[in-house]
Write a structure and sequence with these properties.
The chain is built from ten helices and eight strands. By secondary structure, it is of the alpha/beta class. The chain has one domain: Rossmann fold (3-Layer(aba) Sandwich).
Length: 230
C-alpha cells in the first residue's frame, strides 16, 4: 500500500534551497524525487504554449489532469542535479525563469488546478521511498510523511541565490526586480486562502540564511539517520 512507502517532505519559499537539498537527498537514498513546484510551473508553461490564459480555471484544470511530467535526479560531474521533462522534453531552463515562477504562483491559487494535481503528486509515492519538495507537501499532500522539513531564508538572501542560479545558466538577472518578485510571491503564497505556505505543525524548521548547502545537507543527513536509521 502507498501509505507504507516512506516520504520525506521539504517545504519552504522559493530560493530557500529545498530543490538542491531534495535532489541530493533523493540521489543519496536512491528514492523517487518530486519537485512539486515544477508541476505548477509546467501547467503555466503548457498554458502559455497553448495560448491559455492563467485565469481560465476550466482549461487549466484540463491541462493539469493530462500533464505528462517526469523527474530525474542525476550526477553531473561533482553536482547532483534534477531534471524536469514535459512530454519527454527537458524544459528545466524554461521552468527556472522568474516568469515561470510567477505563472506557477498564479495557477497554484486555483482550487480546481490544485485538486487535479493532488492525486498526480500522490502517485509519485512509490518504493523504495519519496523525497518531495514544495510549499504544501507536509501540510496537504503528504500529511502522514515520516519526516517533514521546512527550509526558509531571508528574501534578500533568496534573491541573491536566484540571481546566481540564473547567471550560472547564462540567463539575465536583475537583483532588485527578482527581490521584488520574491516578496510579491511570498505574499501571495503565505496569504492565499487555499493551502497557504506555512510549516506543518510537526515540521523541523531550518533557517538557511547563514548556512551553506553542505551545512544544510549535513543537518538533514542527521535528521534522516535519526528518523530512518539509514
Amino acid at each position: 500500500m502507498a501509505e507504507l512507502v516512506p516520504v520525506i517532505t521539504i517545504d519552504g519559499p522559493g530560493g530557500s534551497g529545498k530543490g538542491t537539498i531534495g535532489a541530493r537527498l533523493a540521489n543519496r537514498l536512491n528514492w523517487e524525487f518530486l519537485d512539486s513546484g515544477a508541476l505548477y510551473r509546467l501547467v503555466g508553461l503548457a498554458a502559455n504554449k497553448h495560448g491559455i490564459a492563467l485565469d481560465d480555471e476550466a482549461a487549466l484544470e484540463k491541462i493539469s489532469r493530462g500533464l505528462d511530467a517526469q523527474f530525474a535526479v542525476k550526477r553531473v560531474g561533482d553536482e547532483i542535479l534534477h531534471f524536469t521533462y514535459l512530454e519527454d522534453e527537458d524544459v528545466g531552463a524554461e521552468l527556472r525563469t522568474e516568469e515561470a515562477g510567477a505563472a506557477a504562483s498564479k495557477v497554484a491559487v486555483l482550487q480546481r488546478v490544485r485538486e487535479a494535481l493532488l492525486q498526480r503528486q500522490r502517485d509519485f509515492r512509490t518504493l523504495p521511498g519519496l523525497v518531495c519538495d514544495g510549499r504544501d507537501m507536509g501540510t496537504v499532500v503528504f500529511p502522514d510523511a515520516q519526516l517533514k522539513i521546512y527550509l526558509t531564508a531571508s528574501a534578500k538572501i533568496r534573491a541573491e541565490r536566484r540571481v546566481k542560479q540564473l547567471k550560472n545558466k547564462g540567463l539575465d538577472a536583475n537583483l532588485p526586480q527578482i527581490l521584488a518578485d520574491i516578496k510579491a510571491r511570498d505574499d501571495r503564497d503565505m496569504n492565499r486562502s487555499v493551502s497557504p505556505l506555512v510549516p506543518a505543525d510537526d515540521a523541523i524548521v531550518i533557517d538557511t540564511s547563514e548556512m551553506g548547502v553542505d551545512e544544510v545537507d549535513s543537518r538533514i543527513r542527521e535528521l534522516v539517520k535519526s528518523r530512518f536509521n539509514i
